[in-house]
Amino acid sequence: MLFDAFKGHTEGNTQVDTPRQQSAWARDTRRRLAHMERCRALPRIQPGEAEDLVAAFIAARGITQCPPAYVVAVQQTVGGA
């Protein structure tokens, strides 16, 4: 459930040596889990909503090009299960 996203996680240094590192790791993990729960609680994107959000962002920021890495998350959630 809450920790499913972290199963098999091997990225980065998994060795936690000092109490300071343990505290920082715990704080970072709590922050990530809280963010994950907030995102899961959000309603699904409705048809046309992604386009409206992108258009509003472009109008507000004056952006003319967007690297694909920034668009992937929106593309994956539109119409997703």
Largest sheet: none
Question: How far apart lie the N and C ends?
Answer: 17 Å
Order of helices and strands: HHH
The computed structural class is mainly alpha
C-alpha Rg (nearest Å): 17 Å
Unreliable spans are: none
The average pLDDT value, as a whole number, equals: 75
Q: How many discrete domains? A: 2
What is the percentage of strand-forming residues? Answer: under 5%
Count of β-strands: 0
Q: Estimate the helix proportion, in percent.
A: 55-70%
Number of separate helices: 3
What is the overall silhouette? elongated
How would you describe this structure to a colleague?
This protein is mainly alpha-helical and 81 residues long. It folds into two domains: 15-44; 45-81, no CATH class. The chain has helices at 19-41, 49-61, 68-77. The longest helix is centred in the middle third of the chain and has 23 residues, at 19-41. The radius of gyration is 17 Å and the shape is elongated.
Features:
single chain; 81 residues; mainly alpha
Structure, briefly:
Helices cover 57% and strands 0% of the residues. With 81 residues, it is mainly α.
Task: List the SSEs and their pairings.
Layout: H1 19-41, H2 49-61, H3 68-77
